[in-house]
């Protein structure tokens, strides 16, 4: 399938419930653009476009646990056919270069006993700025244009939070691209 569509808060709920059953876990970290659904469920549609919801369980999975779970909710699964999006199980490695305290800043989204810890908008913007793909740069510019974060707050967050000095130059270069998109949007 892989066609992006507008995701809604209800999709986040469905994804967390399905992931909980598939992976036999109750606590997940939601990263990627869909994490905005917890803090800004009414964000403009272009900020909610995705073919998947990226997440990982807070407690690590063993290979024999995650492969069957991926088959239940991952790409090309029946879940994707039914819901027109899939759960992309990523790993905690996606957060290795995130500013300290990111988990404590997460926006909690609970469905009964199931918890989604969704990236705070500044952490999401930092993560996407660091990744620096064109779609990420445009996403961050959109977050700023829509008033979800400010350019000044993101710049301060980058300077104060970048945990690896060797990454700072690249993140700032990508941030300059975000600012260029703001001028041309």
Quickly list its features:
alpha/beta; globular; 9 helices
Characterization of the model:
It is a single chain. The protein is of the alpha/beta class. The chain has nine helices and seven strands. The protein has helices spanning 9-23, 36-39, 63-73, 78-83, 102-105, 121-131, 134-145, 151-161, 165-184, and strands at 5-6, 27-31, 49-50, 52-57, 86-89, 107-111, 114-118. The chain has a five-stranded mixed beta sheet with strand order 5-4-2-7-6. It has a two-stranded antiparallel ribbon with strand order 1-3. Helix 7 packs across helix 9 (165-184) and helix 8 (151-161) packs antiparallel against helix 9 (165-184). The chain starts with a strand and ends with a helix. The model has no long low-confidence stretch (mean pLDDT 94). This is DUF6036 domain-containing protein. It holds the Pfam family DUF6036. InterPro entries: DUF6036. Residues 18-156 form the DUF6036 domain.
How large is the share of residues in beta strands? 15-25%
Largest sheet: 5 strands, mixed
Question: Could you give the count of β-strands?
Answer: 7
Oligomeric form: single chain
Uncertain stretches of 5 or more adjacent residues = none
Structural class designation = alpha/beta
Compute the gyration radius: what is it? 16 Å
Question: How many helical stretches?
Answer: 9
Q: Separation of termini? A: 30 Å
Order of helices and strands: EHEHEEHHEHEEHHHH
Instruction: List the strand order in the largest sheet.
Output: 5-4-2-7-6
Query: Average pLDDT value?
Result: 94
Helix content: 40-55%
Overall 3D form: globular
Number of domains: 2
């Amino acid at each position: 399938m892989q066609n992006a569509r507008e995701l809604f808060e209800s999709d986040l709920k469905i994804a967390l419930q399905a992931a909980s059953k598939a992976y036999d876990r109750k606590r997940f970290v939601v990263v990627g653009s869909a994490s905005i659904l917890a803090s800004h469920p009414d964000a403009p549609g272009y900020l909610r476009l995705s073919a998947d919801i990226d997440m990982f369980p807070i407690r690590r999975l063993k290979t024999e646990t995650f492969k069957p779970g991926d088959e239940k909710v991952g790409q090309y699964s029946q879940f994707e056919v039914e819901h027109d999006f899939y759960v992309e199980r990523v790993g905690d490695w996606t957060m290795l270069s995130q500013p300290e305290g990111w988990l404590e800043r997460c926006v909690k989204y609970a469905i009964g006993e199931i918890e989604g810890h969704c990236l705070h908008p500044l952490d999401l913007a930092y993560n996407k700025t660091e990744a620096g793909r064109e779609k990420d740069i445009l996403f961050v510019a959109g977050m700023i244009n829509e008033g979800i974060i400010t350019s000044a707050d993101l710049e301060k967050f980058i300077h104060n939070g970048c945990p690896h000095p060797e990454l700072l130059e690249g993140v700032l270069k990508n941030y300059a691209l975000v600012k260029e998109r703001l001028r041309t949007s």
